[in-house]
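Hey Z.,

So I finally got round to the shikimate-3-phosphate thing we talked about over coffee. Here's the setup:
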Amino acid sequence: MAPRVILIGPMGSGKTTVGKLVAEKLQIPFRDTDQVIEETTGKSVSDIFLEDGEDEFRAIEKKVLKDELLADGAVLALGGGAPISIDAQSALRAIASPVIYLDISLAAVAPRIGFNRDRPLLLHNPRGQWQTLMEARRPIYESIADLVIDVNDKTEAEIVSLVLEVLA
Ligand code: S3P
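And the result:
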């Protein structure tokens, strides 16, 4: 029992967009840890950060991730920070589902991460904060991934095809 495929990568890398398209092609459900967190808490990710703090968000995220990894057959997109805890790393390395890392450069992501109030970690100096997070997380994303897709110069359709190839 596990997801059909798991998408990881930084904010703005296209996990949700690509994940939805892959799920549509395969006619299987799409799941997204942020969306599950918002449904179960009844709050937006931004409000959880603001009202309860990042530690509380991470605790909820950890539980949601654990449950989602046990659920069968969906395309699962993880929030950018969801794979980073030691527990999450171990679980993702052990799982049979292919883990695909959507790798994107700061130059390509910059236009997407401007002033987006749904990304509480990027409220001030979004590019600088994105880059700092990415420098710390890139080695972890790489070490967990079964496949890295460099999404910089690819269309959505090309990225979706590469994911589908892995699943064929
Ligand atoms: C976060 C990424 C966000 C969301 C939260 C924290 C992160 O998800 O979980 O704002 O720590 O990188 P997306 O990667 O889907 O934007």
